[in-house]
């Protein structure tokens, strides 16, 4: 079974009111994400990895120089699907319930979490990702370069922000900090993060 691109959980224009244009999704989902799926299928064709789950391909290829292309494309397929779900129209603001309590407990306050997340996303040099993860029962903010993700570090990802330049350049040009603030204030899907924590 070839790997497929999961559909976007909203229309291309659904986040226009929150400073994410349809054109960004046309390129980011329609071209970048789609290309990773095509590349991955070409790379694993007629190999045992073609029949593995995406998560297992990521874990099996991580750190193996001979499989760097497979890892990069597989992880980027997974990361992007996770990123689309980390946003929603009318998102942002503060979480509620168990997740809010856990953030307060592990970070000291929601504001402290926001500062940690903003710092991780802003200081990821070059391309990469900022994450909220659960590790050994504790919430942490992490950042990873390029395609790397928490799955290869034994962490449970709850939400992510893509800080590759193509994620924000059409809407924010070189203003990555504004993109990060916009994500937290208007887009972040706390329901998705809470589901991941509970799962």
Topology, number of strands: 3
Low-pLDDT windows of residues: none
CATH class of the largest domain: Alpha Beta
CATH arch. level architecture of the largest domain: 3-Layer(bab) Sandwich
The residue fraction in helices comes out at 40-55%
Q: Could you spell the SSE succession in H and E letters?
A: HHHHHEEEHHH
The biggest beta sheet is recorded as:
3 strands, antiparallel
- Structural class designation: mainly alpha
Task: Walk me through the topology.
Elements: H1 22-44, H2 54-61, H3 68-85, H4 97-107, H5 110-123, E1 128-135, E2 138-145, E3 156-162, H6 169-172, H7 176-187, H8 190-198
Helix pairs in contact: 1-3, 2-3, 5-7
Question: What would your notes on this structure say?
Answer:
The chain is mainly α and 199 residues long. The protein has two domains: 20-85, Fe,Mn superoxide dismutase (SOD) domain (Helix Hairpins); 97-198, Iron/manganese superoxide dismutase, C-terminal domain (minor pseudopilin epsh fold, 3-Layer(bab) Sandwich). Helix content is 50%, strand content 12%. The chain contains eight helices and three strands. The protein has a three-stranded antiparallel sheet with strand order 2-1-3. Helix 1 (22-44) packs antiparallel against helix 3 and helix 2 (54-61) packs across helix 3. The chain starts with 21 loop residues before the first helix and ends with a helix. The model has no long low-confidence stretch (mean pLDDT 97).
């Amino acid at each position: 079974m070839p790997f497929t691109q999961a559909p976007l959980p909203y229309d291309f224009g659904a986040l226009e009111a929150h400073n994410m244009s349809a054109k960004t999704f046309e390129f980011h989902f329609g071209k970048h994400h789609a290309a990773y799926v095509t590349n991955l299928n070409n790379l694993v064709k007629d190999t045992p990895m073609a029949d593995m789950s995406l998560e297992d391909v990521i874990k099996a290829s991580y750190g193996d120089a001979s499989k760097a292309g497979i890892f990069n494309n597989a992880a980027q397929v997974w990361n992007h699907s996770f990123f689309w779900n980390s946003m929603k129209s009318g998102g942002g603001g503060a979480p509620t319930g168990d997740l809010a309590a856990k953030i307060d407990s592990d970070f000291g306050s929601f504001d402290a979490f926001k500062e940690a997340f903003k710092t991780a996303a802003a200081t990821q040099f070059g391309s990469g990702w900022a994450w909220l993860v659960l590790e050994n029962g504790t919430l942490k903010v992490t950042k990873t370069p390029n395609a790397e993700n928490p799955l290869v570090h034994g962490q449970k990802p709850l939400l992510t922000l893509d800080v590759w330049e193509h994620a924000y350049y059409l809407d924010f040009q070189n203003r990555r900090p504004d993109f990060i603030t916009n994500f937290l204030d208007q887009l972040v899907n706390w329901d998705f993060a809470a589901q991941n924590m509970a799962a």
